[in-house]
Amino acid sequence: MRILALDSSGLVASVAVVEKDGEETSTIAEYTVNYKKTHSQTLLPMLDEIAHMTELDLNTVDAIAVAGGPGSFTGLRIGSATAKGLGLALKKPLIHIPTLEGLAYNLWGTDKIVCPIMDARRGQVYTGIYEFDGNELRVLEDQMAVSIEELGEKLKQYSRPVVFLGDGVPVFRKRLVTEIMPESDLHFAPASMNRQRAASVGSLAIRYYEEGKAETAVEHQPDYLRVSQAERERAERERAKQEAR
Q1: CB neighbours (10 Å) of residue 158?
Q2: How far is CA 152 from CA 14, 83, 162, 175, in A?
Q3: Is residue 127 within a helix (H) or strand (E), and if so which, with residue range?
Q4: Rg of the chain over all Cα atoms, to the nearest angstrom
Q5: Quick one: DSSP state of residue 215?
Q6: pTM of the model as a whole
Q7: What is the per-residue pLDDT across 216-245, written as a single tens digit (0 to 9) for each?
Q8: What gap in Å lies between CA 114 and CA 84, rounded to an integer?
C-alpha cells in the first residue's frame, strides 16, 4: 500500500510518501519546509521534487491523505484543493486526517497524554487530547477550539503527565507552566517532532484506509471548526445594520 500525504494546515508545508509492505510501514520520502513562503508556492514543487527523486509514478499511489483541519484557513484550502485536484486527476480516494490527530501521531508510543496545540488567535487554541494504547491512537477529547485556560482545566482532570507540541507551544508554554498548570507534570516535544509532518499524516492514513475511512475527491471538505475572520466581520456588519434600523 502506498499513500501520498500532504499537510499545509499550519505554518509548515509537508509532503510525504509512506508505504506499507506486510506489517512494515516505512517513509519513502518526506519534504518539509517551515519558512516564510505561502503554501501555494511550495506544496506542488515539493511534490514534484519527491516524485522526481524517488522515481514515483503518481498512478501507483493507493490514496491521497491530507490534513483536513482545523488550522490556517488559507493553508487548509490550498491543501484541500491540491488533494482534490490530484484525486480527481488520478481517480484516487482521499483520506481526511484530522490535523490534531496527525500532530499527535508524531509522538507515537509515548505513555503520556498527548496534547497538540495550535495558536488559533483570539485567545484560543485548536487542540485535542490523545493517548496511545499499544499501537493505537486513542481520542480522549476530539478536536476543539477553546481557550488555553479551559484546556488546562480539562487536562487537570486526567491527573497524568502531559506532553505538548504544535505552534501554540511558544505562545502559551510559559503560562501553562507558571499559571495554568503549575502543579502538573508537563513536557514539551523536541524540535524534530513539534510541528506538522506529512509522514505522520501518511502513517495514520494507512490505518484509516484499512478501516475503510476514505472519501472521494468530490466529498472532501476541510474542517475549519469555526468561521473565518471575514465571515465573522460580515456577520458583525449585518448585526450592526439590523440594530441601526
Answers
A1: 15
A2: 29, 35, 11, 10
A3: strand 124-133
A4: 19
A5: B
A6: 0.91
A7: 999 999 999 876 555 545 545 566 566 666
A8: 30
